[in-house]
Write a structure and sequence with these properties.
Structural class: mainly beta
Oligomer: single chain
Number of strands: 30
Strand content: over 45%
Helix content: under 10%
Distance between the termini: 112 Å
Number of helices: 6
């Protein structure tokens, strides 16, 4: 039996995937025995310069399919209403015994597989697929990807069974992406169903607006979780390192970050963090220890150290400093001196350092330079409840002599060599978004805070110099400070 027909507007759809075939010609040849059984079969599918030849071996349940340069631009494949494989060519030979694929070879060339923030073209990939009595095994014999004009090389072996097993390694000289978090994008449901090893080594990884540097990632997955053996990215004026288990209730995940003069909003391209409350540039370092699966568990176990300098920015929705400004205005200390800030509080620099123990940030140093006043503070921030308990000393930008007549009721004068100024002390307690801010007399102020105020406002701040800020004028000897 021989049969030939034309195909047009053929569409195959199943669930959330659909495939539209190009216009083509299909020919079939069948040999049937006296009992009506197919003795042998063969056929040809031809579309433009592509063709698929298939035949059934006589008296055996074996099929041999040969594909010659199938033009994927004309095979329109959609998954979840998104088109994949926009261009490329597929060639190969597939052998099927019964319902099993055996000793097959497939080659994909010039495949466009750009994904959101990682523009890649799969220039050439050749792999073999085998299956005996067990799972499918895919050996990647050759894979060349292009990022711009730079080649990336991929190799590995994957086993498709109840678990996805194997290894995949990617290496290259240069790669450009818009954000580092793109490498880790992906969603899954349920537990992990893989035992994989992934290695990535890029001599120069460039992240838009953040710089370029060496990148290395070694990661493995098991049914229990994801283990990051090593993640390193070292751009100019910065470093990002990560090691440990993701979302593990017992094993910690360690993150170490060092940056200098980076835009705060750009840090979202390294690690997703909430920067909506502050903008400006940031320098400093942080070492964080995570452990747990749920948010409450992670916050309760969070530990580490942090030392950060923010410069030339605004604190958004800063109820703390707005309330302090209101207090100083009521005392006529700042009358007529400042424009309206609205809900954002501008600053020239802000230094914050401390340690984190079991979800509590113990602030050891807080120093703020802003247009209306300087501030020094210390206290605790409770991450699990989003509350704080702190004290703050404020120095308005007005000379002590000009406001001396108003001071004895609320303020205190600190003097040092060649300087004299007024300080106010406040207790800050409650929810982070809108805590209670109250003026407190010096008799109820912690001695540690008073000592910090004296050191900060009467001596050169060498800490500022380390962060690249101008320090007060150097003075010979230690300045004397006293309180009135």
């Amino acid at each position: 039996l021989s049969y030939r027909m034309g195909l047009k507007d053929v569409r195959i759809k199943k669930g959330i995937a659909d495939l539209t075939l190009p216009e083509a010609e299909l020919s079939l040849n069948l040999k049937v025995d006296k009992r009506g059984r197919i003795w042998s079969a063969g056929g040809r599918y031809q579309a433009f310069h592509s063709e698929i030849l298939f035949k059934k071996i006589a008296q055996r349940e074996w099929w041999d399919i040969k594909i010659t340069r199938l033009d994927l631009r004309r095979w329109i494949f959609h998954f979840k209403n998104r088109r994949y494989l926009k261009r490329g060519y597929l060639s190969g030979e597939i052998k099927i015994a019964g319902s099993k694929m055996v000793d097959s070879y497939i080659s994909l060339t010039d495949i466009d597989m750009g994904y959101e923030d990682i523009p890649l073209i799969l220039k050439d990939i050749r792999f073999s697929i085998k299956r005996r009595d067990g799972p499918y095994i895919m050996d990647i014999k050759k894979a060349v990807l292009l990022s711009g004009k730079e080649p990336l090389y991929l190799d590995g072996s994957l086993e498709f069974g109840k678990l996805l097993k194997g290894r995949v390694e990617l290496r290259g000289r240069r790669l450009y992406i818009k954000r580092l978090s793109s490498i880790f994008k992906g969603k899954g449901k349920g537990g992990l169903k893989s035992e994989l090893f992934l290695g990535i080594s890029i001599d120069e990884l460039t992240v838009e607006d953040l710089g370029s540097g060496r990148f290395e990632l070694l990661i493995s997955t098991t049914t229990q979780g994801i283990h990051i053996e090593r993640l390193i990215w070292e751009p100019q004026e910065g470093s990002f390192r990560l090691q440990g288990d993701l979302l593990s209730p017992t094993s910690p995940l360690n993150i170490r970050i060092w940056v200098r003069e980076k835009d705060i909003e750009d840090l979202n391209r390294i690690i997703p963090i909430n920067t909506g409350f502050i903008n400006g540039t940031v320098s400093g370092e942080a070492f964080l220890i995570f452990k747990g699966k749920r948010k409450e568990e992670i916050l309760s176990n969070l530990g580490g150290k942090i030392k950060i300098l923010f410069k030339r920015g605004k604190i958004k929705k800063s109820n703390i400093f707005i309330k302090i400004l209101d207090f100083l205005s009521l005392q006529n200390i700042l009358k007529g001196r400042l424009p309206s800030f609205g809900s954002s509080f501008p600053f020239d620099s802000l230094i914050f350092s401390g340690k984190i123990e079991r979800g509590v940030i113990h602030c050891e140093k807080f120093f703020l330079k802003s247009p209306p006043f300087d501030a020094v503070g210390k206290g605790d921030i409770y991450l699990k409840t989003n509350t704080l308990d702190a004290e703050m000393g404020i120095r308005p930008f007005q000379s002590a002599d000009s406001i001396l007549s108003r001071i004895p009721i609320v303020g205190y004068i600190i003097t040092g060599k060649d300087r004299a100024f007024v300080t106010y002390y406040f207790k800050i307690k409650g929810p982070l978004k809108d805590p209670d801010v109250r003026y407190i007399p010096i008799t109820k102020t912690a001695k540690g805070l008073i000592d910090m105020v004296k050191r900060a406002f009467t001596t050169p701040l060498r800490l500022l110099e380390k962060f690249g800020l101008p320090s007060p004028e150097e003075e010979e000897g230690e300045p004397e400070a006293e309180e009135r």
